[in-house]
Amino acid sequence: MDKSWMHADRTSKAYKLGTTYTLMELTKAIRFGHGTENLGNGLGDIGFDPYEFANVIGDGDKPLYPGSSKYTMFSALVKLYNLKAKHGMSDVCFTELLILQGDLLPEGNTLPSSMYEAKKTLSALGMCYEKIHACPNDCILYRKDYEDSTNCPTCGISRWKEDKDSI
After folding, report:
1. Cα–Cα distance between 121 and 117 in angstroms, integer?
2. Could you tell me the superkingdom of the organism this chain comes from (predicted)?
3. What's the chain's Rg over C-alpha atoms?
4. Strands, E, within the chain: which ranges?
5. Euclidean distance between CA atoms 45 and 33, whole angstroms
6. Of 28, 25, 30, 21, whose CA–CA distance to 54 is shortest?
């Protein structure tokens, strides 16, 4: 299975098609009783539970609130979670945002009300994120060989922000 879409811009057509194809393959595997080991995407290696996935997909198809046709619980949660990752929101901040969103939505909405519930839903799909430090000049990512580095080997700038008061 071609995985090049994973490295594409998240707003690109290639990325959207890749994620859609992967979800379709997972759904087929669950519906027809096949395991996820042979899908070629590595989900079988991380303790992926196909029955939990099926429950989440079933719940994810429900409208975000009665009468909603634009968003499902799952699509709204993924968009909000992407904002969390993109802007570096803390878990506490994200929980407060979910609570506020839930209060703003009509009665009967299906949006999770805490980071814990959101993580449970997203982890059932194998979705998580890992924070990786990057050089402020975008020269390198501090992972693999550079994981313990404190300065960029390309431009020499410090990995860490310096306090105004530091000498």
Report:
1. 6
2. Eukaryota
3. 19
4. none
5. 17
6. 30
Nearest to 60 by CA among 120, 4, 105: 120
d(CA 12, CA 86): 16
CA-angle at 15, arms to 45 and 137, nearest 5°: 95
Q: Which residues, at least 6 apart from 55, have a Cβ–Cβ distance to it below 8 Å?
A: 124
pTM here is: 0.50
- Rounded distance, CA 82 to CA 158, Å? 28
Distance CA 11, CA 49 (A): 28
Q: Measured at the alpha carbon of residue 79, what is the angle toward residues 8 and 101, in degrees to the nearest 5?
A: 165
CB 29 within 8 Å of CB 52: no
Which amino acid type is present at position 123? S
Question: How does pLDDT run across 48-93, given as a tens digit for each residue?
Answer: 555 566 566 666 677 888 988 888 888 888 889 888 888 888 989 9
Instruction: Give CA separation, 56 vs 32, 60, 106, in Å.
Output: 17, 6, 22
- Residues 83 and 49: beta-carbon distance below 8 Å: no
Cβ atoms of 145 and 138 within 8 Å: the answer is no
